[in-house]
Design brief:
- This protein has 7 helices and 15 strands.
- The protein is α+β, with helices and mostly antiparallel strands.
- Strands 8, 9, 10, 11, 12, 13, 14 and 15 form an 8-stranded antiparallel sheet that branches.
- A hairpin with a 2-residue loop joins strand 4 and strand 5.
């Protein structure tokens, strides 16, 4: 049997001690553990971005992997701490809308953590003082039901969904990567289904895009004009705005959750 893998997805940033503190606990609690940093670069409290990361980075790990997700992790009666089991992996997080966005709001295999005492009398760092302990218990074979009481319904938070209009859709920027590429909240398959073979026009400020590029190189015209904005499909399967060797977000002042309109003809 291989060593336990624990991943970390957080909004802690990289300048503080938080990641090192949690890793120290994990190495102390779980012999031979492999700790994988998914990212600590989620902007503070951005659940939509965290959801996008978890969906596209955490699902491919092997059975038995434990994922600690610490974004907006302040426990309340309405948003308790939970463990969700999905495809033989465990996700320790807060029921704040993120797990429902990832796994669905109903029919999940999840427990609300209420049988595990945290390591501190103060409730300011759950990832270190509770989540690490829960991870160690899971790694040691503790059944899910012994961690708390079962729930099959998770809190669903209103999200920025694709809005259908007459011969148009409203879409949103949901992720901006380090290159300034902007993923949109619609996949290629969803777009093609809605498009149904029609021509389209996506306007970003003064730029109008009416074709889909199959990579970052684009057309000959795009290669010659490196400031040309293109619409392509990212590795996540979502439509993405990008510039060949350029930063689309900066050049076109695109922000997280900006709304864009696609017209069909």
């Amino acid at each position: 049997m291989g060593s336990t893998i624990v991943t970390l997805t957080t909004d802690w940033g990289y300048s503080d001690f938080f990641a090192g503190s949690v890793k120290g606990k994990l190495y102390s609690y779980i012999p031979g553990v492999q700790v994988v940093d998914i990212t600590h670069g989620i902007p503070p409290y951005q659940l939509t971005r965290a959801t996008f990361v978890v969906k596209h980075a955490c699902m491919g790990f092997p059975p038995g992997t434990i994922h600690i997700i610490d974004v907006c992790s302040s426990q309340t009666k309405e948003s308790p701490f939970v463990v969700v089991e999905h495809n033989q992996q465990y996700y320790i997080c807060t029921d704040n809308g993120l797990p429902a966005s990832v796994f669905g709001a109903e029919g999940v295999n999840a427990v609300v953590i209420d049988n595990v005492a945290q390591e501190s009398s103060f409730f300011t760092f759950a990832a270190r003082d509770l989540f690490c302990k829960v991870a160690a218990m899971l790694a040691g074979g503790t059944p899910l039901e012994e961690l708390g009481f079962k729930t099959d319904t998770l809190f669903r938070k209103s999200s920025f969904a694709t809005a259908m209009l007459d011969n148009a859709i409203k879409i949103h920027v949901v992720y901006i990567d380090a290159y300034g590429n902007c993923d949109l909240n619609i996949t290629y398959d969803e777009f093609e289904q809605i498009r149904a073979g029609r021509k389209f026009e996506l306007q970003v400020h003064e730029v109008k895009i009416n074709n889909l590029s199959y990579g970052y190189i684009g057309s000959e015209e795009t290669r010659m004009r490196r400031t040309s904005l293109m619409l392509t499909v990212s590795s996540t399967g979502h439509l993405q705005l990008a510039i060949n060797i350029g930063n689309a977000a900066q050049m076109f002042n695109l922000q997280y959750l900006d709304t864009l309109l696609v017209k069909f003809f």
